[in-house]
Amino acid sequence: MGRLINAEFRKILTTKMWWGLMIPTFIVALAMAWGVGALTSDIADDVYREDFIKSAGIGKDSVSFGVIALTRAINISTMFPLIFGALALSSELHRKTITTSFLTASSRPALLSAKAITYVLWGAIYGIVIVLGASLGTLAGSDSDILPEGGQWMLIALMGIVSTVLWTLLGLGVGALMGSPVASVIVLLIYAIIVGPVSEIVLTGFADGKPNIAGALPNGSANGLTGSTAADLIQKQIEELAQGKPISDRAVDTFQAAMRFAAGAPGAFALWASALIFIGWSMLFFVSGLARNQRRDIT
Fold first, then answer.
1. What is the model's pLDDT at position 144?
2. Most-buried pick from 39, 45, 159, 295 (CB within 10 A)?
3. DSSP assignment of 38-87
4. d(CA 185, CA 114)
């Protein structure tokens, strides 16, 4: 197994694709976080200038609105590891180089398992790059008063890396099922950039902002990993500011919906539910793709 994994790493590292995708991944994460961080800071400045907020004694450093920049940047940047995963098997199938791999490996299950392990590791590498870019952008664009604390930052970063790994595996599965790198990339990009985000907004609008079917779809559940985490963190800070005063469930639900929308996860469910749903979607495509190639004829 170790030799097969080393061989898979060599296949990746001897091409330009890994860094050709990683560079824009970092740039997009950095730029998105920087821009959203600056916008969020401007909005926070306006809010905290209100007499009502001042009279309530609420300081600008009371709520970590900077998490919105972090989550937005992570969510949008995951389209790059998604593409990276989609090309894992589809490129070999298209060029028929998979035939040599199948014939020289001890068995197909061993080869496919090695690919799976390899792309889990690469998904984590892309996740670290995304988190690094998003973190630097958030630091550069956001006022220090609205930045999250270290523990909060690490939790969102961890969820971002998990999301990236799962997107990579989902892409690998779709590419393995379709067998065409061009078709796989086009289909996944259309879904990730257009169909997913638009459907989330439309479905959430019909549901009055509450968690709904949008959060049960791949894009919505993936965004919920980071978006719901950010919303929960901000909600806890607001509750602490309330100093034990009763807050209605309706008010909590409305606030959660608004924060998830702001964090790029409209209609998402709670963190644990989003995680289970997205793991389910990723494993569905991933396992189906590997099973398809376990039985595929070689030429």
1. 87
2. 159
3. HHHHHHHHHHHTSHHHHHTT--GGGS-TTHHHHHHHHHHHTHHHHHHHHH
4. 23
Question: Is the pLDDT higher at 239 or at 12?
Answer: 12
The region, left, alpha or beta by phi > 0 then psi within -120 to 50, assigned to residue 179 is left
The mean pLDDT of 245-251, rounded to a whole number, is 71
How does 218-243 read in b/e, with b if 16+ C-beta sit within 10 Å?
Answer: bbbbbbbbbbbbbbbbbbebbeeeee
Question: Please, are residues 222 and 163 in contact by the beta-carbon 8 Å criterion?
Answer: yes
Q: Cβ(284)–Cβ(167) under 8 Å?
A: no
Q: Where are the domains of the chain?
A: 2-294
Q: What does the alpha-carbon distance between residue 93 and residue 89 come to, in Å, rounded to a whole number?
A: 6
For the record, the structure tokens of 128 come out as 């670290």
CA angle 162, 269, 82 (to 5 degrees): 35
pLDDT of residue 98 exceeding 70, the answer is yes
pTM, 2 dp? 0.91
